[in-house]
Write a structure and sequence with these properties.
Elements (H helix, E strand, L loop, with lengths): L7 H23 L6 H26 L14 H28 L7 H7 L3 H31 L4 H15 L4 H20 L3 H18 L3
InterPro entries: CAAX_protease, Rce1/LyrA-like_dom
Pfam family, one: Rce1-like
Organism: Paenibacillus graminis
């Protein structure tokens, strides 16, 4: 008998709860003044991780009460190494994407808080890496690969990989980060489809975010 897997009830539950949580988090963050930008961005990172975890467990509680069905499987070590390599490649790819994007479009810097926190000294950078390069990727991968890509994979690679990457990108907003997120979503969707595990994609996401934050610290 085939193992149960997430479907549309899990997608709708996880995505709705995630979006509600992110909107509420954004409203809270908007009340924090610019003078406390470092606090604001770290609250965002912690909140993103917690919202993603809550959305996952809401989906888990519906029908398929088996975390393995949501990608909580130990992959072969080689796939974790592949994830690390793809994280580095994605970091390089974002410079190409953003170079093309900003050649045609001018928009406000939506990464200013990250840059401020990354340049706030060693302790500030360390906290930012924990919140922005560990907790945020975990929360997002739980929802967008563990639930959404997972459930959409039943309709084939286009739905599972491209469809979930498009949803992931749109949630990041209509700015340059949409295209960066779509790239990461494609890579992680492929890895999830090949391995059935969320962990290689988590590695991609952690390496990608971490390298970006380290880069911000040098600006």
């Amino acid at each position: 008998m085939p193992q149960a897997r997430p479907g549309w009830p899990e997608i709708l539950t996880a995505l709705a709860l995630y979006l509600i949580g992110i909107v509420m988090l954004g409203l809270w963050m908007s009340q924090i003044p610019d003078e406390q930008a470092i606090l604001r961005i770290n609250i965002g990172g912690v909140g993103n991780g917690l919202v993603g975890l809550a959305a996952l467990f809401a989906a888990y509680a519906l029908r398929v009460r088996d975390l393995r069905a949501f990608g909580f499987r130990v992959p072969e070590r080689k796939w974790l190494l592949v994830g690390a390599a793809l994280g580095v490649a994605a970091f390089g790819g974002c410079f190409i994407i953003e170079g093309v994007y900003f050649h045609f479009i001018t928009e406000p810097n939506n990464q200013a808080d990250f840059q401020t926190a990354a340049q706030g000294g060693a302790l500030s950078l360390l906290v930012l890496i924990i919140t922005g390069a560990i907790l945020t990727p975990l929360g997002e991968e739980f929802v967008f690969r563990g639930v959404i890509a997972n459930a959409l994979n039943r309709y084939g690679a286009w739905a599972g990989v491209v469809g979930s990457a498009a949803i992931f990108a749109v949630v990041h907003g209509f700015n340059v980060i949409l295209f960066d997120a779509f790239m990461v979503g494609i890579l992680n969707g492929i890895l999830f489809r090949k391995t059935g595990s969320i962990w290689p994609g988590v590695v991609v996401h952690i390496v990608y975010n971490g390298l970006n934050l380290l880069y911000y610290s040098t600006l």
